[in-house]
Structure formats: structure tokens, C-alpha cells
Amino acid sequence: MNLKYIDGSVTAPLGFKASGVNARIKYDKKDVAIIYSEAPATAAGVFTTNKVKAAPVVLSMEHLADGLAQAVVVNSGYANACTGADGMAIAREMAAATAEGLSIKPDDVIVASTGVIGQQIPMDRLVPGITQAIGELGVDGGDVAAEAIMTTDTIPKKAAVQFQLAGKTMTIGGIAKGSGMINPNMATMLSFVTSDASIAPAMLKKALKYAADRSFNMVTVDGDTSTNDSLVILANGLAGNLRIETEDENFTAFRNALLELCVILAKMIARDGEGATKFIEIKVRQAASFKDGQKVAMAIANSNLVKTAIFGEDANWGRIICAVGYSGVNIDPGKVDIYLGDEKVAAAGSGLSFSEDRTREILQDKEVNITINLHLGDVDVTAWTCDFSYDYVKINADYRT
Amino acid sequence: MNLKYIDGSVTAPLGFKASGVNARIKYDKKDVAIIYSEAPATAAGVFTTNKVKAAPVVLSMEHLADGLAQAVVVNSGYANACTGADGMAIAREMAAATAEGLSIKPDDVIVASTGVIGQQIPMDRLVPGITQAIGELGVDGGDVAAEAIMTTDTIPKKAAVQFQLAGKTMTIGGIAKGSGMINPNMATMLSFVTSDASIAPAMLKKALKYAADRSFNMVTVDGDTSTNDSLVILANGLAGNLRIETEDENFTAFRNALLELCVILAKMIARDGEGATKFIEIKVRQAASFKDGQKVAMAIANSNLVKTAIFGEDANWGRIICAVGYSGVNIDPGKVDIYLGDEKVAAAGSGLSFSEDRTREILQDKEVNITINLHLGDVDVTAWTCDFSYDYVKINADYRT
């Protein structure tokens, strides 16, 4: 693929502006972000599978029903989840205020919130924040938007890629946030992606689902699926390509570029996991199916025992095979090989006498690779997570207060 | 029920002896336990659902196929899991050595191991330990047996109950170990139960499954299902009751007494969870089914975010409803009520303005009760866990080395 990484984020594609301002909703940091497309855009979203969905999630699903959107408004500080009818009214008010300031329709505005559950957003601070953010929209606003959506994140997450499609240059850019309450089966936490590609809503939705399953849905920090997770893409067509209408080679090129971007953002989330001291990549080889490989990889990625062992730089591979065994996949324990980095520690389900010096060296690194070969099929799946440290407990023992 | 708690454990029922000795298999502590019934006993077991089953689990399932057993041999230090054909031979050798010393058949010996995965048990130390343990068998040996099966446990776990059945006194006693790698869908970690009741194998199996589902399977410490979990019961009939052959009122009395004993032991495991500073009881009210209630209760009990919040004494009920939402149960978010202790913090899925002073007081206690009313049916289910502290991370960061 002719893919090129470029600087920038949601404002890298043609026709997008963004901003981020401090409305002092809860914290003394930037807390309101807006992303705006000058042209109407096709749009798609993937949202949390949690039965308890925040008001902005319910509203955004409604607004995406027609496959069109033109702006995204996000606040950090309050999740607007478990907030009843008042919370739903607040989400609608966020869309209405944004639409009015941009002279677009409210149902072309996507709304997202992140923060504490169960408390109402103070609208006397948020509405002026939206007005200010609209006033500050700019083609270099991607970076401040990435900052404004952060909560416990320690670094803003942003990326952009470019590729050629039938002689035209396509750009896809994105921002993301999230470092706790992160688990699969959803578009992990918040991520907003923009593109100047021209693509039909149904194709955009299909590409986004494909990319989400292999990127954000393969990241976990603590195994908790949030009430607010949202991944939304807007594609405004300003790159001038022939509109992608079917699953042809142009679709595949777009989908693969989108996947690449989502993987970059997803890995940034794992790297910035709450209290993380190490980034962990888990590769499952030769699974019978994608679903099986995903289950095995995520069982390992979610195991507190594996993650504390990696934090302690302890080559306790027994905890890895234990997680493989309870993953719910019909594995054959007698076939499982396990590697820490390039050191094979178990073969055919039994321990090998490996070099403790070598594994210590591997585990002392800030990036740890774990490979499991199931020898059951030909599907390879990768997941990303982080280790589990004292600081995870510290961060989460008094987040709310 | 005419149930009475009595002192003692596996040696409380008539005809049982036990012992625990230090064979220095790995640690300088008691590490070999034997439980022996003078009379042949009906027996049943519930074992880990992990696809990766330790050699002693595979062997014990084999030995229980005829519903009979007369002795249990247990070692701590090594799990004998992922140890290949050699590990299987070692498990058989443990049964053979025990059978020989007791002059019973090897397939009437149940074998269990707990400790590190993937390393072979040094038999030159274990076999003399078994011989010594047989020599020390006694009717007051339940306490030392409870000590010998411990690994990271900080207190031995033991209990006994007595009840009347058609004019006869029945006794059930048990020991248990486990404080990490604990999660449902199995007979959590190791527990051995004895009784002098006379009961047919099929009825014993049914009673044990019923009790396990409502006790050990409702306890979690860290969400990891071990390769070695085993719950085994031996009932030798020496109490002289008319043998329980059908699901009559005597069966129900026995089953309920067994459940009571298993709940006591299961709660001891949660209370002694690795690094625990608080014991947490989670009551799910008005679930549509037992399975639904179990899923909701265990989702909360396994949530790192809920458990770190309780450690931090933070009334962050949003994390509780979040876990309810991702439990996989078809709940109605608009019906969910949540209580911390006796303080109602959310009603019909939305936050209430509760007293922070009162919830702080409740959370400062060493025992925290969480109640969730789903308003969907008439089944109540209870789960037990502990909070998640710095010490959990510390204990598990360097367990192996």
C-alpha cells in the first residue's frame, strides 16, 4: 500500500476545522472540542455495547441514522450517563447550540461526553464554551481538540495518513482519548476520524466496523466497557475521488488506510493506559478464526495476573496459558506454544527450560511482545494492552473526588 | 433449618482423620495434606472449567468416575499444570504412594496440587512427605491440613456444621484455600469437604453442584480462572442415617447444610483475597433468573474500577451501573436501583443526591454491602469479593520468583 504517515490529525484532510477551549466545566483544562466539516459529510459510528448507554451515545446513534453529519461536539469532565431525561435534554441542547453557531441542522451534529457518570453537565458553563469553540475553529485546531477530549490521559492522541487513489491524494486523520475503563466489543473510548475521501454511507460504515474490530476493539486497559465509548468518522469528499460505492479495490485501499490509522490511535491508548509502565503486544498465531484469536488475545490482555507479572518483570508464562485456557475458545492445550519476545518458554502446552537471563532482559524492556501459537488454523490476531502497576490502583482509588 | 455451627473442619464428621506436614517441597511451611476416611465413602467433585487442566485435576476426575473415594492427598508449592506426560505420571505416583501407605486402591485417592504452573514437583521430597503425613493422621488433624494447602493465603480456612436428620446427627466439615487466581464457573481453588452422612453418589454430586454454584462460584478475587480448581466431597455414611437415594426432604436438608458450609468457606476466601483491605458483599435483587443475577453480581465483583473505588472509599456508583450494563444480561437501565449499604444512591437508572457523609461512613467500614435491584423478576443472588489495593499488585508482581 502506498501509505504515508503525515503530521496532523482531524484537520489534516481538506475542508476540516477544529478547536478546543477551556470552559471550566469541571477541571482547569481544555474541556470542549468541536470538529467541523465545511462540506456536508457522509458519517458512520461504532458505539459501546454496554446496555447502559450515555445520553450523547443514544443521541449520536439517532443522528447517524441517515449516514450524514457535519460537526462533532465533545466535552470532558462529565459523561452524561445515568442522568435520566434531563441528561438527554442536555445532549440535545449541546447539538442545538453547536448547530446554531455553525448554521447547520442539529441532527448533523454528533455529540460525545466523557468523565464522571451520574452527574449533570453544568450547561451555564458548557454553552458559552461551545460558542467560544466555534469562534476559534481553525485548520490547525486538531491538536487543541485532541487535548480538550482528554481526562486521565497523560498525552494527547492524534495521527494522520495519506494515500493515493486513482491519481487523487486522500487523507485520513484522527484523534482519540482513553486510558481507563477500556475493553473490547466497542469502539474503545472516544475517537473521531475525518477524511476528504468521497464514499457512500454504507461503505463507510462497513470500513469503520472492519477497522474498529481490528484496532480499538483489540485494546484493553482494565476490562471495563464504558457507557460512553464512541468512534465516529466523517468523510466529506473534498479530495475529489470518484465516490466509493461498492467493495472494489478503492474501497479496500480506503479501508486498509483507515485500519492503519485506527491501529496507530489504539496503540497510543494502550501505551497511555492508567499507571502503565510497559506497552504489551499480544500476537495470537494460527487461530481457527478471527473471533477465536480475538478471544484468546483479549483474555491474556485482560488478565490481572499476567499484567502484574509483566509489571514485576516475572516470566510467569503459566498465567498466560491459564488465560488461554479460560478464554472460552476450544483450544487444544497440548498444542500451545508460548514466546516471550523471541524466547520460547513453552511448547506443546508444557514448560521449556528457557534462559531466565534472556527473559529478564526481554521483560525489562518498555515494550513486551507475547506470542501464542495455537496451531489450530491460519488466522493471526494482535491485541494491545499495558502492564498493571501500583499507579493504576492509585489513579482509580480516588478518581471521582 | 436446625443447623448448628461447630468447631472443627474435615475431621469433625465421624471416621475422618487428617494431617499436614512440611516436606519442604518449595517453601518452609506445611505443604502436604492428607484426608482419610476409615470407611469407603461416596464422593463427588466440581473442577475448573479451564481448558488447561492440571494433571491432578484430570486424574481426580478419572478417580471420581465411580462415585467412590477414601482419601485426598494435596501438595502446595507446585500446581503440576502444563507439565506434560511427566506431570501426569507424578500425579499417579502421588495417588499410588498414598494408596500404598493407607492400604487402599489408588483410584480411591483424590489428588490436588496448587502453586506455580509449569514446573515439576520434586518427588524425592514429596513422597517422604506423603509417608510422614500418613504416619501423623489424626482425628484432630483438620487444622494442620488446612494450613498445609495454603499458598498466598494469610489465614487457614475451615468450618463445620451439624444438623439433625430423622433422629441422627449429621456433620459436614471442610477446609479451603485460595486468595488469588479466583473466578467463577468452577469450584474456586481448592476445597475439601467431608461428611458422615450416608448418601448415594448421584445425590451427592447433585447437592455439591447446587452448593458450588451458590458459594465458590460466586466468589472472585481477580477474575482469573485457575487450572487447578477442585472442590471434592467425601461422605462415609458413619452417621447411620437411612441412605439418601432421592431428592426427598432429607436430600434438601443435606444440600442446604452443605450450601451453608460452602458459603462460609467461600466468604473466607474473599475476605482473604490477595491484598484485600475490605470484604465486599454484592446482592442482586429481582433478577429474571439465577444465571442473570449471577452474571450481574460477578460483573460487578470482577470490575477493577469498582474494586479500586471501594479501596479508595469513593462512592463512585457509576462504575457499578457500568458493570451492570456490560454484564451481558438483558437489563433495563431505566429500572436499576443501587444502594451502598443502606444508602440509596441511584433510582431507576439515574443518580440521586445522596449524603456523601453517610456513604463515606459506609465505605470506611471493613465490610461493604452493595445492593442492585434490577426489577425484572424474583430471583436474588449474592456474590462476594474484596477490594483491589496496592498490595494485590505487589503480591502478584513477583509471586513466581
Based on secondary structure, the structural category of chain A is: alpha+beta
Pair with the biggest interface: A-B, 67 and 66 residues
Poorly predicted regions of chain A are 183-188
Radius of gyration of chain A: 21 Å
| Amino- and carboxy-terminal Cα gap of chain A | 48 Å
Indicate the mean pLDDT of chain A.
Answer: 91
Oligomer classification? homodimer
Beta-strand percentage of chain A? 25-35%
Helix and strand sequence of chain A:
EEEHEHEHHEEEHEHEHHHEEEHEEH
Total E-strand runs of chain A: 15
Describe the global form of chain A.
globular
Q: Helix tally of chain A?
A: 11
**Main sheet of chain A?**
9 strands, mixed
Protein architecture, described:
Two copies of one chain form a homodimer. Chain A is an alpha+beta fold. Chain A is 32% helix and 27% strand. Chain A has eleven helices and 15 strands. Chain A has helices spanning 55-63, 84-102, 123-135, 142-148, 201-213, 249-271, 290-301, 304-311, 317-325, 356-364, 390-397, and strands spanning 4-6, 16-21, 32-47, 68-78, 109-116, 157-165, 168-177, 190-195, 230-235, 279-287, 337-340, 343-347, 350-351, 367-373, 379-386. In chain A, the strands form two sheets. In chain A, strands 1, 2, 3, 4, 5, 6, 7, 8 and 9 form a nine-stranded mixed β-sheet that branches. In chain A, a hairpin with a 2-residue loop joins strand 11 and strand 12. The longest helix of chain A is centred in the middle third of the chain and has 23 residues, at 249-271. The first copy, chain A, is globular, with a radius of gyration of 21 Å. The relative contact order of chain A is 0.14. At the A-B interface, helix 8, helix 9, strand 13 and helix 11 of A face helix 8, helix 9, strand 13 and helix 11 of B.
